[in-house]
C-alpha cells in the first residue's frame, strides 16, 4: 500500500524542527520567520502557538524532566523558555549563550538543532541569506552545549547546518550541511560528545535529485528519512549501503524536516515552507505540516535536552 499523506495544520511561513514528545503525544515545531513555537496535539486536533520576540526562532527542544521548558534559538542565541503550551506569551526566558558575537558574523543565525540520545544539545548556525538562494557560505559552525553558558565547537566553515540523526548501535552520527547536497556520516562517541572521520554516505548529485537536503530522522531499522527543500520529497535512505530505498512526493516543493510520532511511532510528521523564491509564491498546502502513514517504518521519539550545570 502506498503511503497516505494528510495536511494536518494551517500554513506557516517556514515550518521546521518537528519534535515528537512521546509522554504527552504532542508535536512541537517552529515557524522560523514567524518567530513562533507551535504545538499540535493529534488526539484533539488542537493547534496552539506562541510568538517570541527578538529574531528568527529555528528550533524547539523540550527539557528533560519538565513539561513546560524548552531550549530554543533566537538568532545567534540559545535560550531556555517556559511555556505552558496554551498561553500567547512565554512566562520565563533565560539566555544560555550567544555565539559568533564578532564582526562579520552578527547576521548569522542558528538553523537546526536536536538533543542526542544522551540529552546533549547539538545546534548549528548559518551565514546571512538576505534572499533565498543568496547565502554567504561557510560562515556557520556546529556546536554542543557543554555548560549552562558554554558551547564546544565541532565543525567550522558550515554553510547551512541542518539535519541530525544518531545510530547508537553503529556509533554513528549523521549530519547535513545543505549546500553540499550530501548526507555525511561521522564516528560518534556518545560519552565524550565527539565526532570524527567524515564520510559521505549519500549524494543527491549521484541520484539526480533536485533541491537540497534539509532536516532528517532515523527509523528503528537504522535508515534515514531526509527532507528535500525545493525537491518536494522525502528520501528513504540506507546510509550503510547508500541505497535510495524509496521516495515520497508531496504537494509542496519546500519540504523541510521530518519526525516520527503517533502512539506507535509509525507516523511521519513532515514540515514545509511557503517561501517566495525568485518572485514565485508557493500555493496551498505549502507551509503546512503533513502526516504520512502507511510507510511500514517506525522511529524513535525526540530526545529531550538535559541542561548542563
UniProtKB/TrEMBL annotation:
It comes from the Eukaryota. Its cofactor is Ca(2+); Zn(2+); Mn(2+); Mg(2+). A divalent metal cation binds at residues 16, 162, 214. The keyword Cytoplasm applies. Substrate binds at residues 109, 111, 129. Keywords: Calcium, Cytoplasm, Hydrolase, Metal-binding, Zinc. One of its GO terms (molecular function) is enzyme regulator activity. Residues 14-274 form the SMP-30/Gluconolactonase/LRE-like region domain. It is found in: Cytoplasm. GO terms for cellular component: cytoplasm. GO terms for biological process: L-ascorbic acid biosynthetic process. It catalyses: D-glucono-1,5-lactone + H2O = D-gluconate + H(+). The keyword Methyltransferase does not apply. Its EC number is 3.1.1.17. Coiled coil: none annotated. Gene3D superfamilies: TolB, C-terminal domain. The active site is at residue 214. Binds 1 divalent metal cation per subunit. InterPro entries: 6-blade_b-propeller_TolB-like (IPR011042), Regucalcin (IPR008367), SGL (IPR013658), SMP-30 (IPR005511). Belongs to the SMP-30/CGR1 family. PANTHER family: MIP34848P1-RELATED, REGUCALCIN. This is Regucalcin. It comes from Tenebrio molitor (Yellow mealworm beetle). The lineage of its organism: Eukaryota, Metazoa, Ecdysozoa, Arthropoda, Hexapoda.
